[in-house]
Specification:
- 2 copies of one chain form a homodimer.
- Chain A has 14 helices and 7 strands.
- Chain A has 331 residues and is an alpha/beta fold.
- In chain A, helix 2 packs across helix 3 (30-44), helix 2 packs antiparallel against helix 7 and helix 13 (291-305) runs antiparallel to helix 14 (311-328).
- Chain A folds into 3 domains: 1-46, Up-down Bundle (Single alpha-helices involved in coiled-coils or other helix-helix interfaces), CATH 1.20.5.170; 48-261, P-loop containing nucleotide triphosphate hydrolases (Rossmann fold, 3-Layer(aba) Sandwich), CATH 3.40.50.300; 290-329.
- At the A-B interface, helix 3, helix 7, helix 12, helix 13 and helix 14 of A face helix 3, helix 7, helix 12, helix 13 and helix 14 of B.
- The structure holds guanosine-5'-triphosphate (GTP) (2 copies) and magnesium ion (2 copies).
């Protein structure tokens, strides 16, 4: 199948073609990369835009359970839902996140759903580009909502927030001084905090946790992109499927306001600029990842470590090498 | 003065020549950079090595006061002391750190001391390289101890630890739940924690804080580069000049052990390799900092933000441009 045909099938919403296109954007091969750019460029012309929701939370907070329940609720409303993941640990685990498709048993069997695990990659920069491209493919394929999941361990939330229209933080009910557990930086990124597991015995502590966070959010500086009352903290139970329609109503209200007030397009524009810059930086650094460059870096690094060469001189040698390679390859 | 003469004067310990050489390594100009590399390479042959001590602490904890008192104590022992700074905020403030030479009034008038404020730079990568080069110059000039100060606000501690033989964290006595204030990552970098201001009314709380941190340090995983009892927490008073000789004794014990057990050289070797790699990365990214490249990045970024071009395509255009420039410049 050539790239034109692939792009057309994706545009018609063909899920197998979409899966194939995602594989293409995930590939590290240069020819695949060139094809991917062509496909993405064709599909950019569709002008379709989904609602991109970033979702994060610590392990066990209930992300998978929530996505299953929330996704099914959206499907019931006639919306098409794609689920992607940015897994900061995939370098080690080989892409474990969303490997638990079993936890999204119902959703994965829906015709209106597309679930894709995180690509295994060695660094977050690479995962970020691939996920972002996958988001663009899902949009072109006509999905209405794209959920981008990440485990909350630091840097990956920022990456997800940089490619989403809004950021949802999932929390668990807590006993003691739970506010300590969430980094201020992460809280400042959140548009909506959902305290999950607000059911059974946990309901009381969920309610307290929710009130604590609502209070903490009020202390944050007001951002221009927030309507009155946002960011907001709410309770949900992914297991009991309660609070989900209320959460969706808040999301719609927030996004509606942002669209009307120019913040939605403004954010997308700045994100596109950011990713362009990031692509350029990553590509410049990628020169160091060829087998030859790695071998040379290792050899020079050894000489530096043995004290035979100052770091600055070795760096100059390495850069001269890279220039010679790029000159002789005629690029 | 040519580079040879400059290098010779630095090697003889001439402080004015040293100041000039530091200015050279701080310069952004390409010809200065080339001269700096030549000077550094010449001076690397001296094989001199100072004890490099990284020092960090939040604003107001007493870093300047401590450096003055500690430095004077070292001077009294016949040691030559250089003080450098890595200021993460210098992009904004234009290099405020150690601008308070007045706080180091006595030390700055000593013939055996050299104090240099942080260079004003736009990014930490650049500051890091310049400070590291300045450290090498101070070593070649025969200083025995090089103190590298930074305000503790996150990333800059890591940079300082990466260029020091050991890392000292300065803390203030605290009322309540102070342990919360120090990031776990920062504590894990510390070889020695000094609770400052252990004098007057503050002595009791200093003692409690010190015990708290000693306890916390015991909970950390043992590192191969630590002798029995390290990392360690101690009390000092920079104002009253108490605890300083004790702190120096611990530093000497730690460094002596590391030297004997190969950790000192091992750490230096790995640091040199790290800085070589970092130099290469920074140089690759520096291509984006020429006026032409910045203008082109801005124009392409605008097109991307307006939605006229996908980020990936714009990145390819930019990279093609950079290749054309480097090909035509014959480099
Ligand atoms: N009581 C209760 N339990 C829940 C709820 N949501 C999830 N759980 C339980 O919490 C556990 C973890 O749920 P997951 O959905 O796998 O959590 P996760 O955030 O995806 O975890 P990782 O994939 O490991 O990061 C499971 O045992 C779920 O059954 C809820 O709303 N209420
Ligand atoms: N009581 C007491 N006060 C001290 C001590 N050391 C410093 N101070 C006081 O603490 C204040 C801050 O001291 P500095 O040395 O300027 O602190 P710093 O960490 O350099 O601060 P920045 O440069 O702003 O990051 C001053 O008022 C000092 O006089 C000490 O050992 N005991
Ligand atoms: Mg999960
Ligand atoms: Mg100071």
């Amino acid at each position: 199948m050539d790239t034109l045909e692939l792009a057309e099938k994706v545009e018609r919403g063909d899920r197998r073609a979409l899966a194939r296109a995602v594989t293409l954007v995930e590939s590290g091969r240069a020819d695949h990369r060139a094809e991917a750019v062509t496909v993405l460029e064709r599909l950019a012309k569709t002008g379709r835009q989904a609602l991109r929701i970033g979702l994060s939370g610590t392990p066990g907070v209930g992300k998978s359970t929530f996505i299953e329940a929330f996704g099914m609720m959206l499907i019931a409303r006639g919306l098409r839902v794609a689920v992607l993941a940015v897994d900061p640990s995939s370098a080690r685990s080989g892409g474990s996140i969303l490997g638990d498709k079993t936890r999204m048993d119902r959703l994965s069997r829906e015709a209106g759903a597309f679930i894709r695990p995180s690509p295994s990659q060695t660094h977050l920069g690479g995962v970020a580009r691939r996920t972002r491209d996958a988001v663009a493919l899902c949009e072109a394929a006509g999905f209405d909502v794209v959920l981008i999941e990440t485990v909350g361990v630091g840097q990956s939330e920022t990456v997800v927030a940089e490619m989403a229209d809004m950021f949802v933080l999932l929390l668990a009910p807590a006993g003691g001084d739970e506010l300590q557990g969430v980094k201020r930086g992460i809280m400042e990124m959140a548009d909506l905090i959902l305290v999950n597991k607000a059911d059974g015995d946990l309901k009381t502590s969920a309610s307290r946790t929710c009130a604590d966070y609502a209070g903490a959010l009020r202390l944050l500086r007001k951002r221009p992109q927030d309507p009155e009352g946002f960011p907001k903290a709410m309770m949900v139970s992914a297991a009991q499927e309660t609070g989900l329609t209320e959460a969706w109503a808040e999301i719609e209200a927030l996004i509606g306001w942002r669209r009307e007030n120019g913040h939605w397009q403004g954010r997308r524009a700045e994100q596109a600029r950011f990713w362009f810059q990031e692509d350029v930086r990553q590509a410049l650094l990628a020169q160091l990842q060829t087998p030859d460059a790695r071998a040379r870096m290792r050899a020079l690094g050894d000489a530096v470590a043995r004290g035979e060469m100052p770091p600055g001189r070795a760096a100059q040698d390495m850069l001269a090498d890279l220039r010679a390679v790029s000159a002789s390859s005629g690029k």
